[in-house]
Amino acid sequence: MDKKRLTVNLLQNEANIFAKIESEHNEKSLFGITDGKAIGSYFEHKFHNFLLSKYNYIAGSSAKGIDFPELSIDMKITSIKQPQSLCPYRNARQKIFGLGYSLIVFVYEKTDNNKIKTGRLNICHTIFIEKNRTADFQTTKGLNNILKNDGNIDDIIAFFQERMLPIDEIQERLLAEEVLNSPPRIGYLTISNALQWRLQYSRIIQEAGNIKGIIRIL
Question: 4-90+99-134+191-216: which CATH architecture?
Answer without folding.
Answer: 3-Layer(aba) Sandwich (3.40)
